Amino acid sequence: MDRLLLMTCFVRAVETGSFSAAGRDLDLGQPNVSRYVAALEEYLNTRLLQRTTRKLSLTPEGESYYLEARRILDAVEESESSFKGNIVPSGVLRVACPTALAHTFLVPHLSNFLELYPELTLDLQFNDRYVNLVDEGVELAIRIGHLQDSSMRARHLGSFKRVCVANNQYLAKHGIPIIPNDLSKHDCLVYTLLSTGTTWQFHDKDVSVSGRLRVNSPEAIRECVNAGLGIAYGPEWLFEDGLKSGNLQLILNDYAPPPVPIQIVYLAGRFLPKRAIAFMDFVAEIFEKISAFNTR
């Protein structure tokens, strides 16, 4: 029994989300991948995956085994590459990144990264929800905010200022908030994926806000505040064009909260392949040159 093959099938099933996708990826076909994963479970005498008609999900035992299997496969790949004289980063790198951040600062530089590493395939997942690195087979995630999970390690990329902004016409019609508590009298644009929910943080207090418009996209928040639909709260760089054009105005700037860190996170106990290190170095160099992320 080729245990590396069984491991590979299991890991790719976890990372692609299905036996069918793993079969296509490995050129083995869905029945073989399913059979090999079942053989691995039988060999280990434990259930690794819960199977439903809709998706695969890891059992607690499967989660632990995935981490070890991924580490072993990465180490094997690195070892083989070094013996072959192939010292350049290669393979598939899966990275999760917040949508607006990715489109604004990452996408414009991707051609340079791919040109630097022609043997590397980049699988980027742009979304604004929390991504579980283990469950979704992601090696790196760019995250906004302080690291809360002790099973993760992080590389600091920079920090940015959070601000409140509003369209000039909205302020002319509804008045300018003087203190954070004044927000209770205003239509606030609610970003539904904000980690603090409907609570906006300021340097000396947190304020609960409400509004008639709720959206799950930072880009939508930007468009709505530019259209004068309410007051918005978020990273200053998100509203940069509107502030420069004079369409938007900073408000409650004296109450701004501390800067928010941006980090690349990865699993603490996992072997980091060269492709992951190369990507972290590349992104860190990009962010170092962006003034919006050098806030102290």
UniProtKB/TrEMBL annotation:
Residues 1-59 form the HTH lysR-type domain. InterPro entries: LysR-type_TF_proteobact-type, LysR_HTH_N, LysR_subst-bd, WH-like_DNA-bd_sf, WH_DNA-bd_sf. Coiled coil: none annotated. Transmembrane segments: none annotated. It comes from the Bacteria. Keywords: DNA-binding, Transcription, Transcription regulation. The keyword Transcription regulation applies. Pfam families: HTH_1 (PF00126), LysR_substrate (PF03466). One of its GO terms (molecular function) is DNA binding. Belongs to the LysR transcriptional regulatory family. This is DNA-binding transcriptional LysR family regulator.
